[in-house]
Specification:
Blueprint lengths: L1 H29 E5 L2 E7 L10 E7 L4 E7 H4 L6 H8 L3 E4 L14 E3 L2 E4 L7 E8 L7 E5 L5 H4 L3 E9 L16 E9 L4 E10 L1 H10 L4 E9 L4 E5 L4 E5 L20 E7 L6
Antiparallel strand pairs: 1-2, 2-3, 3-12, 4-16, 5-14, 5-16, 6-7, 6-10, 8-9, 8-10, 10-13, 11-12, 11-13, 14-15
């Protein structure tokens, strides 16, 4: 009986190792290293969309090598630009949406501040998620997604110079918090993995937000938290290095034909970008 038990435990350990190895291999096979601390991954969604390629793009960013920036027309002036135009003008390596915006074309739907500039002073209690970076306190991570159900937002709020309130996609216990809906659209989102890397997530193929969350949580990217950025034609992702120049534009939404081949990027007023950190001289 004892030998049988040892054999069973050994088989389970081998199986666990094989699963871990298969997951690591799947991730490596789908990801390309662009630079130290920067990867782009393309996954075939396990759930096929009714339109498009059903590809999920993931940009993995190490905060040890890259800093995050918030750029808004309410602060820098000018007019809304495509993600690529923002990147070219401000020398950004990657750009995505900084959340949804109101009918005035510039104000974020939730709280948004960048150092002394306040884009929207009102905290939307129902959103429960805030992207925080540019720390004012050395005791906190360079960038994180604060979950107000599990963390003290009032306390952490003062420890960061840049805060962007976003709609939560998954609870701090890893549960999908979106109810299923009929409407589908292209989606951009931001997440963080269990190793502390930030993730820019994008799908041009239309999904309900509930299904998109299920999809990204099933991918071999060890996702720990995620927040919704934008949907439909406004959803955007751009990345440019010496080896790649990739522009992803949303093309589907509840008000648009899901079979449309429209590819042009939509001008957006507020963006999150990354820049490479300078090597430390210490």
């Amino acid at each position: 009986m004892q030998m049988k038990r040892i054999w069973y435990i050994s088989c389970m350990m081998v199986l666990a190792i094989l699963i871990i190895a298969a997951t690591a291999s799947a991730s490596a096979d789908n990801c390309k290293r662009l630079d130290e601390g920067l990867y782009i991954c393309e996954f075939d969604s396990p759930q096929k969309s009714g339109s498009g390629s059903s590809k999920i793009t993931v940009v993995k960013i190490s905060p040890a090598y890259y800093a995050f920036k918030l750029l808004t027309i309410s602060e820098v002036g000018g007019k809304a630009m495509t993600a690529k135009e923002w990147a070219k003008k401000y020398n950004l390596v990657a750009v995505t949406n900084a959340g949804m915006y109101q009918a005035d074309g510039s104000t974020n739907v939730g709280y948004m501040k960048n150092f002394s500039h306040i884009n929207n002073p009102k905290v939307a209690r129902s959103y429960k998620t805030t992207l925080a970076f540019n720390p004012a306190d050395s005791t906190v991570p360079d960038v994180q997604i604060i979950d107000s159900e599990c963390q003290n937002f009032s306390e952490l709020k003062g420890k960061y110079n840049t805060l962007v309130q976003l709609i939560r996609m998954a609870s701090c216990t890893g549960n999908n918090v979106w109810q299923q809906q009929q409407a589908t659209w292209s989606i951009s989102a931001i997440g963080k993995d269990k190793s502390g890397n930030m993730l820019l997530l994008f799908s041009r193929s239309p999904y309900t937000v509930h299904d998109f969350i299920e999809i990204i949580m099933s991918l071999p990217i060890s996702i720990a938290s995620a927040a919704y950025l934008e949907g439909g034609r406004q959803a955007s992702l751009y990345i440019s290095t010496k080896d790649v120049d990739i522009e992803k534009a949303g093309g589907y939404g509840s008000n648009y034909d899901e079979n449309s081949t429209f590819q042009s990027a939509w001008p957006i007023p507020n963006v999150i970008g990354i820049v490479k950190k300078q090597p430390s001289t210490k």
